């Protein structure tokens, strides 16, 4: 997905082609440009390994609230047009979406190919992402581990045509990613995400105006460890198995309470769990450790059943556990 950054597009395409060339027949590459920025069009057309699409939309944009950036409306229109084209004109059964400010990991395509089997079999999975919001190098360790999450991560993600059939007719005018995070749209379905990111977002200059870049995006760890996804058993991620799988890990973590949580966690060394009682309580604890504090529609970023997990003093895991998370997991906290 591109618009007006030819240098960014070049960096992204170069990264993709490095790993896509050997699997091009399975993963045909398209660049969709929103608008008519000549340098972007010229750059996209200079590659014979991809198909160029151009979205020309001259309909004026009317923001619904004063002060809103028009760009977010244009992005939502472009997404709908491009995905309609790939699913309905080109008849793909699954599509992976990247934006023009991303580099990919060497195992990006193998990861998505392995995860596609999950997406096809388990209708409680809405999409598969290559992104972990808390994927900064100080918070990750194991490149083989995947999680289910109630929070849509975006940033390099795959969805199936059956899901697009449902989303396309009601696609929002703007802020499509936050719209997908609303309960009324994901309807309790979940997302697969890795512990270690398979995309790196280098877009310091863009519609989100670099607000998070220095703190959250720049320190992201892009996976550089070879993983043999073809031989990995990912059945633990299926809905009927995952609850018990995750509950067993959380159950073994040592509960800690009170003040000086960071210090206490450091002194324990093994996995720990810390309960929070509400959103302000979560934000306070998350702030102490330096992970994302943000929630959308009652769900913290990366959470599963209200639980946010990250590494700390690797390989120790910290689980921030919501007030009824253990009950949802069937864990008796006695």
TrEMBL record:
Catalytic activity from the UniProt record: N(4)-(alpha-D-Man-(1->3)-[alpha-D-Man-(1->3)-[alpha-D-Man-(1->6)]-alpha-D-Man-(1->6)]-beta-D-Man-(1->4)-beta-D-GlcNAc-(1->4)-beta-D-GlcNAc)-L-asparaginyl-[protein] (N-glucan mannose isomer 5A1,2) + UDP-N-acetyl-alpha-D-glucosamine = N(4)-{beta-D-GlcNAc-(1->2)-alpha-D-Man-(1->3)-[alpha-D-Man-(1->3)-[alpha-D-Man-(1->6)]-alpha-D-Man-(1->6)]-beta-D-Man-(1->4)-beta-D-GlcNAc-(1->4)-beta-D-GlcNAc}-L-asparaginyl-[protein] + UDP + H(+)
Q: Which Pfam families match?
A: GNT-I
Matching entries from InterPro entries are given as: Glyco_trans_13, Glycosyltransferase_13, Nucleotide-diphossugar_trans
What does the note under cofactor report?
A: The cofactor is mostly bound to the substrate.
Q: Say where the protein is mainly found.
A: Golgi
Q: Where is it located?
A: Golgi apparatus membrane
Q: Which cofactor does it need?
A: Mn(2+)
Keywords, ordered alphabetically: Glycosyltransferase, Golgi apparatus, Manganese, Membrane, Metal-binding, Signal-anchor, Transferase, Transmembrane, Transmembrane helix
Keyword Manganese in record: yes
Membrane topology classification: Single-pass type II membrane protein
Q: Which Gene3D superfamilies match?
A: N-Acetylglucosaminyltransferase I, Domain 2, Spore Coat Polysaccharide Biosynthesis Protein SpsA, Chain A
Recorded GO terms, molecular function? alpha-1,3-mannosylglycoprotein 2-beta-N-acetylglucosaminyltransferase activity; manganese ion binding
| Superkingdom classification of source | Eukaryota
Q: What Enzyme Commission number(s) appear in the record? A: 2.4.1.101
Q: Does the keyword Zinc-finger apply?
A: no
Pathway-wise, it operates in: Protein modification; protein glycosylation
Q: Name one GO cellular component term.
A: Golgi membrane
Question: How would you classify this enzyme at the top EC level?
Answer: transferase
What task does this protein carry out? Initiates complex N-linked carbohydrate formation. Essential for the conversion of high-mannose to hybrid and complex N-glycans.
Q: Matching PANTHER family, A to Z? A: ALPHA-1,3-MANNOSYL-GLYCOPROTEIN 2-BETA-N-ACETYLGLUCOSAMINYLTRANSFERASE, PROTEIN O-LINKED-MANNOSE BETA-1,2-N-ACETYLGLUCOSAMINYLTRANSFERASE 1/ALPHA-1,3-MANNOSYL-GLYCOPROTEIN 2-BETA-N-ACETYLGLUCOSAMINYLTRANSFERASE
The record's family statement is: Belongs to the glycosyltransferase 13 family.
Please report the name of this protein according to its UniProt entry.
Answer: Alpha-1,3-mannosyl-glycoprotein 2-beta-N-acetylglucosaminyltransferase
């Amino acid at each position: 997905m591109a618009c007006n950054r030819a240098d960014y597009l070049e960096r992204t395409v170069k990264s993709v082609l490095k790993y896509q060339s050997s699997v091009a027949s399975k993963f045909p590459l398209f660049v969709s440009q929103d608008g008519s920025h000549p340098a972007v069009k010229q750059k996209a057309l200079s590659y014979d390994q991809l198909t160029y699409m151009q979205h020309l939309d001259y309909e004026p944009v009317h923001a619904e609230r004063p002060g809103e950036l028009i760009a977010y409306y244009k992005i939502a229109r472009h997404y709908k047009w491009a995905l309609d084209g790939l699913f309905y004109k080109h008849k793909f059964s699954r599509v992976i979406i990247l934006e023009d400010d991303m580099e990919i990991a060497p195992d990006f395509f193998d990861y998505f190919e392995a995860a596609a089997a999950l997406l096809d079999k388990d209708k409680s999975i809405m999409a598969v992402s290559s992104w972990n919001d808390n994927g900064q190098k100080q918070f990750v360790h194991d490149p083989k581990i995947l999680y289910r999450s109630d929070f849509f991560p975006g940033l390099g993600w795959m969805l199936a045509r059956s899901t697009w059939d449902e989303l396309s007719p009601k696609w929002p005018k703007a802020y499509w990613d936050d719209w997908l995070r609303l309960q009324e749209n994901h309807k309790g379905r979940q997302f697969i995400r890795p512990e270690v990111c398979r995309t790196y977002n280098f877009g310091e200059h863009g519609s989100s105006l670099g607000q998070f870049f220095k703190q959250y995006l720049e320190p992201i760890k892009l996976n550089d460890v070879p993983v043999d996804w073809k031989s990995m058993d990912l059945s633990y991620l299926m809905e009927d198995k995952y609850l018990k799988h995750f509950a067993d890990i959380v159950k073994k973590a040592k509960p800690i309470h009170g003040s000086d949580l960071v210090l206490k966690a450091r002194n324990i060394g093994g996995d720990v769990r810390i309960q929070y009682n509400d959103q302000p309580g979560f934000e306070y604890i998350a702030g102490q450790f330096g992970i994302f504090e943000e929630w959308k529609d009652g769900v913290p970023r990366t959470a599963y059943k209200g639980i946010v997990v990250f590494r700390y003093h690797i390989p120790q895991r910290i689980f921030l556990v919501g007030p009824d998370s253990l009950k949802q997991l069937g864990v008796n906290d006695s």
